[in-house]
């Protein structure tokens, strides 16, 4: 653990929310201390001719009544807070026994073995921690990536989760997911995670080598959307380009999809490590699903999705995509040194199994489907 992460953990500890029993206990103890110091206590000691006299007085009259009233209230509050703290502790122990937290870590581009996701789960998420690791680096990092085998391994994620959580009811299960993979695989991982109950996402920050919660403030910025109103009814194919962490490669899009209309969802100044607000990501996801719903309303046949977005937003978009009611979707991976620059995709079509597709030539209305693998 580096010094920065240690400082962050110390700050989190001191500013963490306290249970009300702790607040009551502190207040009542403070009141008892104040009463003992200045609440009418008087102590006298007399030594004369070798005789000793000791006097302890609590005052009299209205002052004594007020003193004893406050003393009684503070004492009762102290006992009540201790009782509440004990019950709270028993409740948390029960929760810890029955609750499970499953860390779904997706490794495809970065080796996070030294900082596994399961060890970065915040303490506020209660439950027994277990790790569900999907590591496809050996398949996708070589000179000839084997995306088909990587997809087949990723497909097992849903089954793997259900085997690991068998016997645990949904209200006692929390899934924490994160990782760095090709965007097409991340999007499909989100599709697989959609049915797994409560899913919380964490972002791997490459600059610091740490997992980050999506707890920053919402900047209020949203996508500007262009090209949607120009989409024709029953258009067979359309490109949806999302610029969230980088600007989408529009030259590469024009080279790969030379005759297709393009709908853009674009932040004003897209940069990496700037979308660490869960609230903002939820709002951007709603914009994405609104665009997809509008394309469905216009009977668009197929969406070619280009994502320049952080991993957590790619997963979140996949969770929000509805393959039963939205157009067939192909999510592409960019390889800037290849021709065309978007040489492969993962296709999701209704309830059919996801499919890996590769192409070696620009995609037009005439050659769609000619290069399936």
TrEMBL record:
rRNA-binding among keywords: no
Q: Where is the SMODS-associated and fused to various effectors domain?
A: 159-348
Q: Name one Pfam family in it.
A: SAVED
Keywords (A to Z) from UniProt:
Membrane, Transmembrane, Transmembrane helix
The SAVED-fused 2TM effector domain sits at 5-139
The answer to whether keyword Protein biosynthesis applies is no
Q: Locate the transmembrane regions by residue number.
A: 24-45, 65-85, 172-193
Q: Which domain of life is it from?
A: Bacteria
Q: What is this protein called?
A: SMODS-associated and fused to various effectors domain-containing protein
- Which species is this UniProt entry from? Bordetella genomosp. 12
């Amino acid at each position: 653990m580096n010094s920065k992460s240690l400082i962050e953990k110390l700050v989190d500890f001191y500013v963490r929310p306290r249970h009300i029993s702790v607040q009551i206990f502190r207040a009542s103890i403070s009141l008892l201390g104040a009463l003992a110091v200045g609440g009418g206590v008087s102590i006298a000691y007399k030594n004369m001719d070798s005789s000793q006299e000791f006097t302890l007085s609590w005052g009299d009259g209205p002052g004594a009544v007020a003193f004893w009233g406050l003393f009684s209230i503070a004492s009762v509050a102290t006992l009540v807070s201790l009782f509440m703290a004990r019950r709270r502790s028993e409740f948390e122990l029960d929760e810890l026994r029955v609750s499970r937290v499953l860390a779904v870590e997706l490794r495809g581009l970065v080796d996070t073995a030294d900082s596994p996701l399961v060890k970065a789960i915040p303490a506020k998420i209660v439950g027994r921690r277990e790790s569900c690791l999907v590591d496809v680096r050996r398949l996708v990092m070589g000179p000839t990536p084997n995306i088909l085998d990587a997809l087949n391994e990723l497909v097992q994620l849903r089954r793997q989760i259900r085997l690991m959580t068998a016997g645990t009811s949904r209200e006692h299960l929390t899934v924490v997911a994160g990782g760095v993979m090709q965007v097409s695989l991340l999007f499909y991982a989100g599709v697989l995670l959609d049915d797994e109950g409560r899913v919380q996402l964490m972002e791997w920050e490459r600059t610091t080598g740490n997992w980050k919660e999506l707890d920053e403030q919402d900047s209020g910025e949203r996508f500007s959307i262009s090209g949607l109103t120009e989409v024709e009814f029953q258009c067979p194919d359309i490109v949806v380009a999302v610029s969230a962490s980088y600007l989408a490669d529009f030259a590469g899009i024009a080279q790969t999809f030379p005759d297709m209309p393009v709908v853009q969802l674009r932040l004003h100044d897209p940069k990496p490590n700037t979308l660490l607000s869960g609230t903002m990501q939820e709002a951007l996801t709603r914009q994405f699903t609104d665009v997809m719903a509008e394309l469905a309303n216009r009977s668009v046949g197929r969406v070619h999705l280009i994502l320049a977005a952080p991993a957590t937003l790619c997963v979140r978009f996949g969770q929000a995509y509805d393959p039963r009611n939205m157009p067939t979707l192909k999510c592409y991976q960019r390889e800037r040194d290849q021709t065309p620059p978007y040489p492969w995709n993962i296709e999701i079509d209704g309830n059919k199994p996801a499919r890996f597709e590769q192409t070696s030539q620009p995609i037009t209305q005439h050659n769609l489907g000619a290069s399936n693998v």
